[in-house]
Design brief:
Blueprint (H helix, E strand, L loop, with lengths): L2 H10 L4 H5 L3 H29 L7 H12 L14 H31 L1 H16 L5 E4 L3 H12 L4 E5 L2 H11 L3 E4 L5 H6 L7 E4 L4 H14 L4 E5 L6 H7 L3 E3 L1 H14 L1 H12 L5 E7 L11 H4 L1 H4 L2 E7 L7 E2 L12 E7 H7 L9
Parallel strand pairs: 1-2, 1-4, 2-3, 4-5, 5-6
Antiparallel strand pairs: 7-10, 8-9, 8-10
Helix pairs in contact: 3-4, 3-5, 12-13
């Protein structure tokens, strides 16, 4: 792996931060349960061996286990194994009694922590989230919640687009939810068909795969294309040589973060005002101004009309920046009012998300 890919992998590695480093009742409950089980098994064997040492054949494994349980739980049904006069067994029982106060208490404390932390409420939220995902249509799936994935999530949430995040680490998803607010998610590996189906890939509009390594993104692209041939797939690539492979695998477009970063640095140098304008537009959480595209569908109210007759400015505060006629690669910039809107034409608009939403129904065919 090249140095650039190694650095990028570190940069896009899931940031679990304080979640992984903080108190985790599930983890400590598991540790405590393992320790408690080990204490029970070993103590039972110790009593059994002490019985052999003292010549007490009546100390069966069942009786020894019962002695351990009543000691650890501090129930104490009396001297079950008749230890009086057996010094070694008495001292061992005293030590076990001290452990019986600490280990079970540790397990119970963490079990209580699980309940307080909302284990049951989490299960209810998960069930509700699964129902919401099952009702989605035309949403976007984000595979991988590293730095790139987080930025994709932020943009989709700001522009009020339905999305589902897929990541194998539940702690990463929880940390992102605390920082950015609740969002729909599926925990699991994005290269598993069952996980993609749980995210509603068969009903999704698009998929963004931004896992740390190209080979992982390639596999997700192959799986996603097989599950939904109409899906629009955008894949992150670390090595530009992988672009062709990604497109062959089924991706509609690829994005190289290093290439985008280089263009941005040059733009900051030679056209800083333009960069400032775009940054201000993207970061304005109150205004949410965005460039958006709308396609003229067959049978829609806009089909067959001219741009002026449609009267977009009278319906909403939007600006038509460019128009691409159907079956044409080049855009017409600042189109005039007499420009026809043939079915299949694509308009590029600038405006607030809510304002663009006001005119969007003009370009789609009404559906029951």
């Amino acid at each position: 792996m090249s140095r650039r890919n190694s650095e990028s992998k570190k940069r896009d590695a899931p940031k679990s931060g304080d979640v992984m480093g903080g108190y985790n009742p599930i983890r400590w409950f598991r540790y405590g349960a393992v320790v408690l089980g080990a204490v029970v098994v070993l103590s039972t064997l110790c009593y059994y061996l002490l019985g052999i040492y003292y010549g007490r054949p009546d100390w069966t494994l069942k009786d020894c286990l019962f002695m351990v349980v009543i000691t650890l739980t501090t129930i104490g049904y009396g001297d079950w194994l008749s230890l009086r006069g057996l010094a070694l067994a008495e001292f061992y029982t005293m030590g076990l009694a001290v452990v019986g106060v600490s280990v079970p208490a540790f397990v119970i404390t963490n079990l209580t922590g699980l309940i307080v932390e909302g284990m049951f409420s989490h299960a209810m939220r998960r069930k509700k989230m699964d129902k919401q995902i099952a009702q989605l249509q035309g949403h976007v799936i984000i595979c991988g919640l590293g730095n790139t994935g987080l930025n994709c999530l932020n943009e989709l949430l700001l522009t009020q687009r339905s999305c589902v995040v897929v990541d194998r680490d539940p702690e990463v998803l929880a940390a992102a939810a605390r920082e950015h607010g609740e969002f729909l998610s599926v925990t699991g590996s994005a290269d598993a068909d069952a996980v993609l189906l749980a995210a509603g890939i068969d009903r999704a509009f698009g998929l963004i795969t931004c896992l740390p390594e190209d080979k992982d993104n390639l596999f997700v692209t192959l799986s996603a294309r097989a599950l939904n041939p109409k899906l629009r797939i955008v894949s992150k690539v670390e090595d530009t040589a992988a672009c062709g492979k990604m497109l062959t695998a089924g991706a509609d477009a690829t994005v190289n973060p290093d290439s985008i970063g280089g263009l941005r640095m040059v733009s900051e140098l030679v056209r800083p005002s333009v960069v400032t304008f775009l940054d201000t537009m993207l970061r304005d959480r109150a205004g949410n101004y965005r460039f958006e595209e709308l396609k003229v569908e067959v049978g829609s109210p806009a089909a067959g009309q001219t741009l002026g007759a449609l009267g977009l400015r009278g319906r909403a505060d939007v600006m038509v920046v460019a128009l691409r006629p159907p079956a044409v690669e080049r855009f017409l910039y600042n189109p005039q009012d007499d420009t026809p809107l043939a079915p299949g034409a694509v308009l590029v608009l600038l405006g607030q998300v809510g304002e663009i939403g006001k005119v969007a129904p003009l370009f789609t065919l009404a559906r029951d």
